[in-house]
Amino acid sequence: MRLLMLNDKRIYSYILSIVPNVSDADDIMQETSAVMWRKFSDFKPEMSFAAWGFTIARYQIMSHFKKQKRSKLCFNEDLTKLLEEEVEGQFTEMDDRLDALRHCVKKLGDSDQRLLQLRYERNLTLQNIGAHISKSTRATFYSLSRIHKLLLRCLQRTISMRGGLDG
């Protein structure tokens, strides 16, 4: 269950990248989750859970398109596999960027990390954050802007040092 919760957005994004209809994508995701649940004993810990989920989703998508033969939009299996590889590559890049961001956030001081937590984890408005830290809304805005600039520079350096990312 934990693995599915950690990867369900990725798998759903993959499905949605191939199936443009949200309602159909929702149905396919539901079927994919059910199949993953039933076949979880086939999953091996050394495998990538997301890749395993993409494979199951691909079969569910192909099944969906077979049922929708009357639809003018039809993908063959090779095209679906190509799209899967592209989506998986994008997720790998996103994971690398998130890893770099976590590294950069750890380098911030406690008060800066606290501001980020209030804004992005607790989803507070600038006004509410200002009240929390006894600063005006404007001062809070400038503090967050400064932190964003620090994080951007750190991300650029970190990604550059790691050999860069495409895109």
The appropriate CATH architecture of the domain at 1-75 is Orthogonal Bundle
* Order of H and E elements: HHHHHHH
Low-confidence stretches: none
Which of globular, elongated, flat, extended, rod-shaped describes the shape? elongated
Give the terminus-to-terminus CA distance: 33 Å
The total count of strands amounts to: 0
The name CATH uses for the topology of the domain at 1-75 is: Rna Polymerase Sigma Factor, Chain: A
Q: What percent strand?
A: under 5%
Number of helices: 7
Instruction: Supply the helix-strand structural class.
Output: mainly alpha
The CATH class assignment of the domain at 1-75 is Mainly Alpha
Instruction: Specify the CATH homologous superfamily of the domain at 1-75.
Output: RNA polymerase sigma factor, region 2, helix turn helix motif
Rg, alpha carbons: 21 Å
Largest sheet: none
Overall residue-averaged pLDDT value: 83
Descriptive report:
- By secondary structure, the chain is mostly helical.
- The chain has a domain at 1-75: Rna Polymerase Sigma Factor, Chain: A, CATH 1.10.1740.10.
- The chain is built from seven helices and no strands.
- α3 packs antiparallel against α4, α4 crosses α7 (137-161) and α6 crosses α7 (137-161).
- It starts with a helix and ends in a 6-residue tail after the last helix.
- The mean pLDDT is 83.
Topology:
Layout: H1 2-18, H2 22-38, H3 49-67, H4 77-107, H5 110-121, H6 126-133, H7 137-161
Helix pairs in contact: 1-2, 1-3, 1-4, 2-3, 3-4, 4-7, 6-7
